[in-house]
Amino acid sequence: MNYQYRAKYTKIPSGYMGQIIEWEEVITEGKDLKECRLMLEDALKEMIVAYQQQNKPIPKFNDSV
Question: What are the start-end ranges of the E strands in 1-65?
Answer without folding.
Answer: 7-12, 15-20, 23-30
